[in-house]
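Dear colleagues,

As part of the handover before I leave the project, I'm documenting each prediction I ran so the next person doesn't have to rerun anything. This entry is a single chain, and its sequence is reproduced below.
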Amino acid sequence: MGAKRSNGSIPVIDISEVSAADAADQLVDAVARYGFVFVRAMNFGEFSNGKAQQPLPSSLASHEAELNHFGVLCHELCINLLRLLAVGLKVDLSEGGKDWFSSRHDPSQGPSGSILRLLHYPAIEMDKSDLDTSVDIRAGAHSDYGSLTLLFQRASQSGLEILTPNLSWSPVPVHPPSTEDDPFPPILVNVGDLMQFWTNGLLRSTVHRVVFPEGKSEDRYSIAYFCHPLDYIEIKAVPSAMICDRKMDNSQQGMETVTAEGYLRKRLAETYGWGKQQSPARD
């Protein structure tokens, strides 16, 4: 077990031992420093009794069970990561200890904003378009809204970049060093805005974007799972000395206690003017 640096300085962490204190410390350090970490281990809202709560396109309708199962596995991985974060943050045992985060993401206790998204960025004929890769990008700069995001990528399809503290863009390798011989790329995990808010800025929500690869264009496929707390959970500072001693960031100053759903609505309103729309897309 151990953390290894990738080309973009993002560590690769083995979390196979979920209760290991060293893995927990490595995870907290990675997301506090970079906001992203690699781990080995179309929007679909939460399924109910294994069934999608919105119509599925014909190409996916016969795969409803697989989509539900994959979403469940994604959430279980997030729960493991959240437990590691709680251990690494040394959450007060009297307040729930390692289960402080996970208990607030328990789907049996109510709905949340968690979303499974299938992404397709179509190829562009580079020599037959006015595409300027120094300006044009596939997904604009943004941060994610929730607690954690899992990103599943195909081996040959790069393009993700993160904004570094010195305000330059750094490419994120799909297969970072030490994973080249793995049958599949590691899962990329990043912290969302709500987790940054929850931890008074200790854990970083990093701005990122998707660009066209240099010199070529091919269809890019990826899957993202956006993990959110239960809608009714009040977002207060995590009961940890590592967090309570930190000052709130500017976005938290003077802000009243807010629920996870209220926080998501606020972010959607800021980004999309949500409140005027009937069915906003989350994240």
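Confidence is low (pLDDT under 50) at residues 1-8, 276-282. The CA atoms of residues 34 and 204 lie 7 Å apart.

All the best with the project,
I.
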